[in-house]
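User: Here's a chain of 266 residues. Predict its fold as tokens.
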Amino acid sequence: MNGRVVTITSGKGGVGKTTTTANLGLALASLGQNVVCIDTDIGLRNLDVVMGLENRIVYDLVDAVEGNCRLTQAMIRDRRYANLHLIPAAQTRDKSAIAPSDMVRLCNELRPEVDWVIIDSPAGIERGFRNALAPADEVLVITNPEVSSVRDADRIIGLVEADEKAPAKLVINRINPGMVKRGDMLSASDVVDLLAIPLIGIVPEDESVLVSTNHGQPVVLNDKSKAGTAFLNIARRLMGEDVPLMVLDEKEGLLMRLGKLFSGGS
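Assistant: Prediction complete.
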């Protein structure tokens, strides 16, 4: 194996980055891939809760980096898929406890053993972001269809490009077709036009995401959920499959409506 490292990142707002990490990890595992998810949000730690593994933690990422345990000891096996593991973040340390070079070394140790390493980056662009970005082969930028979130995403895309990584790919989260149709929300095409990077997935607004997250059961396990299907489709695209984007009933986005107003259209 020569596992690929995918870093999932976002701006400062709550855009579902950690939820995306958990769901993509589970989706890839359900497709037969060997996956390790790494939570690099040192000091906070939420990925274990979203994955429903919070009660199984003994060692964490910092323990593995500092040599307090073997890397395999820090890897928590998922209850549902034996081919999915989590390396949790430390809660009692800060982001300076590890360096980008530590993350590169750790991921290089994992690559021969797994198909995918999925890194949940801390929100924002500080030291934790640099740690998460350093080993990445691919970067997914998560944004909500709102102006402040898109602006944050644009800043992150610039940093990814400055670090000479492959072009980031975009996941648009929490699209509400009804709000788009009324012109109260940016459409997916609006966001793609603004950010100008490839779109790898659209996740519709779905109340089952919140319910599933609160129960530590990522929504991708719910085959009746549109959001769950969207995450599974993103995983398939990461694996190279040609999967059409989910069709949402979007007619007119906020940018289109504003454009008509300024041009005198209706």
